[in-house]
């Protein structure tokens, strides 16, 4: 089978297509033939920087990707035999861009309802719910979301309708129309639209641009920043980096929400499995317009 591997820190063009044996199904495992995989910015960061994430999966060579959708083609004797031929979403932070992935963790495997398509499921990310929890905990009634048109931002915005706070989704000027079209009921701002001063606010930072955070900090007296994109020390005093923990119940909830149409999946461009490098370059060179997917 083909696996797409990061072998160094020289970026996208150093990725290698490697032929490997198909994993043998283990007694605790199910073998999944992959069909759709998301192209994620975290891979781009990892391909250039060994300290790009807080995860412990950084040894090279490593198979890229963290999740994907496929069909179960073999089931180990200790797993539920009814899983055979089921369409599933799986989490595999140790690498998902292979024709076949062996899943041995039932908490990271989700059978998909018929009404959730492969493409919709492949966009799933639970990081939005990490930010939502932080927003719910905050006593501040003003919430700014930078990078609101991102895949994570779109999932977050759709889940904030139960939160009784004033939301300011912030985007770059070229992304305003896209987010307005995708979520027409939500008012969208660029940072220069924000004219007033605020006593207090929380910023859910998805864009990771310190210039935008500086502009906001000049307008907010009591500011706290929760970032999923900046891990390093910085000039902001009330600042916290948060990350997702691949929690089973969160993904189960998201799949149910896709199935009952309370969530809409942002699906972007779709590439062929021979074009993974092109897909990653497309992600790098373009504004976010839904999750870029690769079909295996
Ligand atoms: N902490 C965690 O657990 C975790 C997990 C997953 C992902 N992440 C990180 O979260 C971020 C968002 O992920 P995603 O998949 O939602 O990405 P995405 O859909 O590609 O969106 C990226 C967002 O960042 C904005 N952006 C990028 N560079 C910018 C800049 N220089 N100035 C202003 N805005 C900028 C983009 O704006 P435009 O579209 O207008 O360019 C877009 O809104 C990534 O940095 C990713 O690595 C963190």
TrEMBL record:
Gene3D superfamilies: Medium-chain alcohol dehydrogenases, catalytic domain, NAD(P)-binding Rossmann-like Domain. This is NADPH:quinone reductase related Zn-dependent oxidoreductase. It comes from Leuconostoc inhae.
């Amino acid at each position: 089978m083909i696996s797409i591997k990061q072998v160094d820190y020289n970026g996208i063009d150093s990725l290698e297509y490697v032929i490997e044996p198909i994993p043998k199904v283990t007694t605790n495992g199910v073998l999944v033939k992959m069909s759709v995989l998301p192209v994620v910015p975290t891979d781009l960061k990892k391909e250039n920087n060994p300290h790009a994430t807080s995860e412990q999966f950084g040894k090279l060579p490593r198979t890229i990707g963290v999740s994907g959708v496929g069909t179960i083609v073999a089931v180990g004797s200790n797993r539920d035999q009814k899983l055979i031929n089921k369409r599933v979403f799986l989490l595999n932070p140790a690498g998902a861009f292979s024709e076949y992935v062996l899943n041995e963790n039932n908490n990271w495997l989700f059978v998909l309802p018929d009404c959730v398509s492969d493409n919709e499921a492949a966009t799933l990310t639970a990081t939005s719910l990490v930010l939502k929890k932080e927003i719910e905990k905050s006593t501040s009634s003003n919430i700014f979301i930078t990078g609101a048109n991102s895949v994570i931002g779109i999932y977050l915005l759709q889940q904030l309708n139960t939160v009784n706070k004033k939301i300011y989704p912030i985007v770059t000027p070229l992304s305003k129309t896209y987010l307005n079209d995708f979520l027409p009921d939500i008012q969208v701002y660029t940072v220069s639209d924000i004219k007033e001063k605020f006593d207090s606010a929380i910023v859910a930072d998805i864009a990771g641009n310190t210039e935008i955070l500086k502009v906001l900090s000049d307008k907010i007296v009591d500011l706290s920043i929760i970032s999923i994109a900046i891990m390093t020390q910085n000039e902001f005093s009330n600042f916290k980096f948060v990350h997702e923990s691949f929690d089973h119940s969160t993904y189960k909830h998201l799949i149910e929400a896709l199935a009952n149409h309370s969530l809409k999946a942002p699906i972007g461009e779709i590439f062929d499995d021979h074009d993974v490098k092109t897909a990653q370059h497309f992600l790098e060179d373009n504004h976010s317009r839904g999750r870029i997917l690769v079909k295996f």
